[in-house]
Amino acid sequence: MKKKIGASNVLYPTPTVLVGAVVDGRPNFITIAHVGIVNASPPHLITLGMGRAHHTDPGIREHGQFSVNVPGEALVVETDYCGIVSGKRVDKSTLFEVVYGALESAPMIEGCPLSMACRLERVVEFATHDLFVGEVVETWADESVLTDGVVDLAKVRPLLFDMSTRRYWSIGQAVAKCWHAGKALKERL
Questions:
Q1: pLDDT band at 25 (very low <50, low <70, confident <90, very high)
Q2: Which one of 18, 47, 51, 96 has the minimum C-beta count within 10 Å?
Q3: pTM
Q4: Radius of gyration (C-alpha) of the chain in whole angstroms
Q5: Across the chain, what does the average pLDDT equal?
Q6: How far is CA 27 from the centre of its chain?
Q7: Residue 8: pLDDT above 90?
Q8: How confident is the model at residue 92 (pLDDT cuts 50, 70, 90)?
Q9: Residue 72, beta-bridge partner list
Q10: Angle at 99 between CA 159 and CA 139, to 5 degrees
Q11: Pairwise CA distance, residues 156 & 165, whole Å
Q12: Which of 175, 163, 170 is nearest to 10 (CA)?
């Protein structure tokens, strides 16, 4: 039997990422777990939900560029730190080796196994938060996390965020192959 638990967002866990932007002339990184995929075909669009009060927000708006870096489990301490201190008071770029690709205002983190440089497509404003929609211009992957040229999540070991338990989680084993597991049921019906 199900129990009513109120109007609660239970779509967690979500990937934890480090969003990079140039703010006040220097790279800044913020931990964000409210990320999403808009589509899977070009142009590749993703979303970030971010509180308007965050230091990174005006940098994305000013330059129209940002990066999305996917940290592995080995960066859990640095990732959490970037979510609990403000770039207004601390230069978080000193934690990482910062690199740039095609976009000069989208600082990426060399130590993250995956990084995407994004151009701001649009901003959807809400009372306290902004939803940034970005076009992925380029994606960088450490060769160590690729299997046959494709990103292998088991090798990335991304951090997953769960709001209800306030914990970072890791991924487990694959359960089934997408667009394949339901074929037996489709054939029976």
A1: very high
A2: 51
A3: 0.95
A4: 18
A5: 96
A6: 17
A7: no
A8: very high
A9: 158
A10: 60
A11: 23
A12: 163
Token pair of 123, please?
A: 């901003």
pLDDT (tens digit per residue) in 34-77: 999 999 899 999 999 999 999 999 999 999 999 999 999 999 99
Rounded to whole angstroms, how far apart are CA atoms 20 and 69? Answer: 8
Domain boundaries, the chain: 14-188
Token pair, residue 129, equals 């938060």
φ/ψ (deg, to 5) at 153: -60, -30
CATH number of the domain located at residue range(s) 14-188 in this protein: 2.30.110.10
Amino acid at 147: T
Task: Output the furthest CA–CA distance in the chain (Å, rounded).
Answer: 61
Compute the C-alpha angle 13/166/33, nearest 5°: 45
Task: Give me 41's structure tokens.
Answer: 């075909």
